[in-house]
Amino acid sequence: xxxxxxxxxxxxxxxxxxxxxxxxxxxxxxxxxxxxxxxxxxxxxxxxxxxxxxxxxxxxxxxxxxxxxxxxxxxxxxxxxxxxxxxxxxxxxxxxxxxxxxxxxxxxxxxxxxxxxxxxxxxxxxxxxxxxxxxxxxxxxxxxxxxxxxxxxxxxxxxxxxxxxxxxxxxxxxxxxxxxxxxxxxxxxxxxxxxxxxxxxxxxxxxxxx
Length: 210
Hints:
A hairpin with a 5-residue loop joins β5 and β6. The chain starts with 5 loop residues before the first helix and ends in a 7-residue tail after the last strand. The chain has 210 residues and is an alpha+beta fold. It is globular and about 60 Å long. It is 36% helix and 16% strand.
């Protein structure tokens, strides 16, 4: 399958999944994801899909600065309702990387590895998504500001022409090229830009006896 070259240039995400380790799905439960994986999941590549990937990556880095993120060990809350805008697309990407689901995930074995009730929508948050470690209670809020990665001025002209079927073959090809160019820049030039992927510092849990 031929995919754009920049997919391989995007940052990769490594996690440790205790369930994968337990069932022998991967040595040590170590799983690695690339941008192509979330494209296959979503069925398309766009700034929303890329930003969900990068927000999750940023949250992992903040919550697990010295170790691999634990897939299945993180709860996720989104500010918007599940059916609002592109929230569902973002949630699907986050679920792939974290394992967190509302009620459709793995039910667990003998009380372990349950992936349900780890995803929530419509939560009052100071940002877009909150990720919380189940073991420590530490949490981080992450947001994407895609306005800092402007698209090509020709997109608003070409998109309606392509959607209504009046665009030429050359125009359709040009639209796809310039659309993916913005995604490429987001993933390869702005992945670690705090103006674009904003991380609101890790909040540690308050000890029970504090």
